[in-house]
Amino acid sequence: MVTTTEDTTVVIIGAGVAGLTLGNFLLKSGIDCVVLEKQSRQYVENRQRAGTIDSRGVRMFREWGLEDVTKDKDAASEITGGIWIDEVMYPMDFDDDNISDSVLCPQQVLVRNLTDAFLRAGGDLRFEARDVTPQDLLGERALVHYRSTDGTAKAISCDFVAGCDGFHGISRASIPDDVLTRYSHVYTFSWLSILAEVPANPSGMAIHDRGLAGMIPRGANASRLYIQCPAGDTPEQWPDERIWSELQARFGTEVPPGRIVDKRIVPLRCEVFSPMSYGNLHLLGDAAHIVPPMSAKGIHLALFDTEVFARAVIKKVQEGDAGLLDSYSDTCLSHIWNYQAFAVWITELMHNAGDASYEGEFRKQLARAELERQFTSPAANRLFSELSAGLL
Ligand code: APR
C-alpha cells in the first residue's frame, strides 16, 4: 500500500553522470526534481568507469556554473602519450586549442563532485530506492512508485520522468516492445580491463599482430590497462604474469609490472534504442545507447542528452513551449548516430590487426596510413587528438 504521494516536476531515475548532471541543471534553473537511485551512495561514488571529460563537456559545465565538478585533485596535469604500431611510437599532439579544455577526471570523481554540488544546492537525492516503477506515462502526469530503505511504499507524481538508469535500468523496459526499436552490433572481441597500482609506462595504445593494448594513466601512481581478447574469455584465463608479458609483447618495449587490483571483461558493443521518448518518459545516456569504449564517448553522449533535455524541460516549464521536448529524441539520435559512426570507425581501425581471418596485416597497414594522415592533416589531427584526449 502506498503511504505517501508527493509532487514534483521531474523524477530522475538513476544517479549516474546523466541523472546527477540533469539534477544540477534543473536546480540551477529553479525546477523541482527528485533523484531516485537504486544503489547506496558509497557504491555509486566508488564505481570505476571512464576517465576523461572532453572539451565539450568541460565547456558545458563551465557555462552552467559547475566548472568545479570536473576537478580531480589527484589527476595528472598533463596529457601525454602515443600510439605504437609494430613497436614504432607515434606521439600524440595534445597542444591543439580545441582539446586544451579536456580534463582527466575519473567518472567516480565526477559523480562524487556532482553529488556534493547537488546536495549543497539543496537537491533531493534518495539512495537505495528499491523497485522503482514509472506508471501513467501517457497520462497528464506520471506516477513513479518505489520502496524506501525501511520498506515503505512511496509514489511521486510528476510532469516528466528522466530515465537515467543506465543500460540495465528499468526505464527503457517501461516502453512497450512494439514502440521501441533496438539497433545492435556486438564485436567478436572484448577488452580485458585491468586496474593496476603502477604509473602508465608506456602511456598510450598499441596496435599489434597479437591485438590492441592500452595503458592509460589514472592519477600519478595508477593506470587502467586494456588487452584485446576473444569475446568469451574470462578474467581467470588472464593471470597477472600473462597480463604483463602480453603488454610487453604488444608495446614491444619494457613494461614494469605492478600490483593488479581489478580485472574484468568489457564486451565491445554498439546499441541504440529509438525513440528515446515515450509520453512523459525520456531516456538519457546509457539507458538509450552504448558506444564501444574505444571511442571514449560514453560520457560525452550522456552529457549531450542531458543538456538537450534540461533545456527542453526549462523551455516547457518557463515558457509553456513543448517544441524542444517534442524534438528531444530526434535531436539526440542524430548526434548519437554520428558518434556511433565515429566509434565504429575508430574501433575497426585500432583492432583486428591480429586476426589473420580478417586480413590482419592489411588492416594494420590501413591503420598506419590512417594514423599518419591524422597526424599530418590539421583538421583530422584535431578530431583525433580530441578522441585520444578522451582515451587518455
Ligand atoms: N532504479 C534506480 N536507479 C537505477 C536503477 C533502478 N532500477 N537501475 C540502475 N540505476 C542506477 C545505477 O545504479 C546508476 O547509478 O542508474 C545509474 C546509471 O548510471 P550510469 O550507468 O553511469 O549511466 P549514465 O548516467 O547514462 O552514464 C553514462 O557511464 O557507463 C558510462 O560510458 C558510460 O560514460 C558513460 C556514462
Characterization of this structure:
With 392 residues, this protein is α/β, with parallel strands linked by helices. It has a domain at 4-74 and 101-183 and 270-342: 3-Layer(bba) Sandwich (FAD/NAD(P)-binding domain), CATH 3.50.50.60. It contains ten helices and 20 strands. The strands form four sheets. It has an eight-stranded mixed sheet with strand order 6-5-14-15-16-13-17-20, with helices on both faces. Strands 8-3-2-12-19-18 form a six-stranded mixed sheet, covered by helices on one side. It has a four-stranded mixed sheet with strand order 1-11-10-9, with no helix packed on it. α1 packs parallel to α4 and α6 (298-319) packs antiparallel against α8. The radius of gyration is 22 Å and the shape is elongated.
